[in-house]
Amino acid sequence: MNVEACTYVIFGAAGNLSRVKLMPAFYHLDEANQLPEGTKILAVGRRDWTQEKWLSEVRDMIKLKTKEAFDESVFKRFSQRLHYHLGDLQQPECYTKLTTMLEEPIFPKNIAFYLSISPADFGFVVEELDKNKLLTQQHGWRRVIIEKPFGYDLESAQALQKRISHYITEEQTYRIDHYLGKGTVQNVLVFRFANVMLEPLWNRNYIDHIQITHSESIGIDNRGDYYNSSGAMRDMLQSHLLQLLTLVTMEPPVSMEAQALHDEKVKVLKSIRPIPKQAVHAQAFRAQYASGVVNDEKVKSYLEEEHIPEGSITETYASMKLYIDNWRWRDVPMYLRTGKRMKKGQSIISICFRQPPLQFFHDSAHHATVDQNWVILGIQPEECIRIEMTVKEPGLEMKTRTSSLDASFRNSDEKVVDAYEDLLLDVLKGDRSLFLNFDEVEHAWQIVDPILQTWAIERDYVATYPAGSWGPEDSRLFDKDCHGWRTSLTPEK
């Protein structure tokens, strides 16, 4: 694919996302010779920095991320792409000066505006860009990248979409979910649709249930203000985990093109059985971390974190059970959960197969039943796939044990590619396959809205779990007594 040079305009370039993700990702793309010649990166910020100060800041950002892999010669080349524009995005003057700057011949006319800013500012910024004719595609393309969260609930998401759609089309809008940029997540698609041996089994006749877990050992860091108004359900379940669920359960698309993928994902979201408000407690659970020990270090409770108001009931753990009412998945429970300050940071998709109809090979003195088969997809930090099967133990007796076929998604000599590198490059290519259309966002909000509304009015109590544990006791979610959260890539006894 022929990729044209563009100007990347970064709003919020001095913020945490830019420091930790965006600037290192741009550097690595340049290091790999993936950025088209002439591509520029124009940072917009309120800090009164000179060009030299900005370059110094970017150098520090990249050194912190790359450590000993930092290459001075690569940075020297990369720094030629970097420019700084002093401006307050709340002031109209910022945009008139930006327009003048972008008219300089050094800046390519294809422009991508990356809004690494508060969601509350999305509408205003897009409106000001339009007023200054910066979204007109007369002399080059214009694309706007929006970070999650897209709205606070269904109503606010619809209001935000209504506002920005006055100025940009859906094709110009790139709603970024960095989770979908992870190579391992994309490998889910390859695993499902490039290997025919499992496809006949990938349905309600053979699969007992599916679990998707994203756990974090870290707390909320310095994001108290944001997190307390968001919570785990909005921060992770409504976006990342529902997207993973669509990839695991969707029908084979007609192609890997953006629209074909989008159509199949939306079909899944539309098929998810609505949760009536009276069923919220049977299908969703929330909790908050208390003090505890994580990685041999004592940590404080959520209520003791900075910028968290006394008596906050914001959840740091959320789980829910969903059903997909279609031919393939009817009545198969889908369990999703996420939590902060848990025992280990990891993302795994666990597919549990049904028991054989007859149990021939078990010794009642050792096993009540043969262990079920599992397919485990490790998303992070271990990028791998495991297929667990029952085999006979060596010896004269008929005893069985679980053995697994293990495959890493990455050879030892292959470099880890950050999700943002993939996604930033896809914007240049105009490839929207890993970005979200609004109807995906809208249907996702419709799924979780009844839960959020119920939790919002129940403000007198929220369960807790010790930091460093695997979360609270939420067993009422499970359809069967034998169901329980899978917490490891290896067989659990």
Name the features.
493 residues, Rossmann fold, Dihydrodipicolinate Reductase, domain 2, nine-stranded mixed beta sheet, 18 strands, 21% strand
Topology:
Elements: E1 7-11, H1 16-31, E2 40-45, H2 51-66, H3 72-79, E3 82-86, H4 92-102, E4 111-115, H5 122-131, E5 142-147, H6 154-164, E6 173-176, H7 183-193, E7 207-215, H8 224-230, H9 232-249, H10 258-271, H11 280-283, E8 284-290, E9 292-294, E10 297-299, E11 317-322, E12 334-339, E13 346-353, E14 374-380, E15 384-392, E16 400-408, H12 419-429, E17 435-436, H13 438-457, E18 463-466
Helix pairs in contact: 1-2, 1-3, 1-12, 6-13, 9-10, 9-13, 10-13
CATH architecture title of the largest domain: 2-Layer Sandwich
What would you call the shape?
A: globular
Largest sheet, spatial ordering of strands: 16-15-14-13-7-12-11-8-18
Helicity level, as a percent range?
25-40%
Q: How much β-strand is present in the residues?
A: 15-25%
- Count, helices: 13
Coarse structural class: alpha/beta
Compute the gyration radius: what is it? 24 Å
Q: Tell me about the largest β-sheet.
A: 9 strands, mixed
What is the mean pLDDT?
90
Q: What do we call the CATH homologous superfamily of the largest domain?
A: Dihydrodipicolinate Reductase, domain 2
Please write the CATH class name of the largest domain: Alpha Beta
* Number of DSSP E strands: 18
Domain module tally = 2
Low-confidence stretches: none
Q: What is the CA–CA distance across the termini?
A: 50 Å
For this structure, the CATH topology of the largest domain is Dihydrodipicolinate Reductase, domain 2
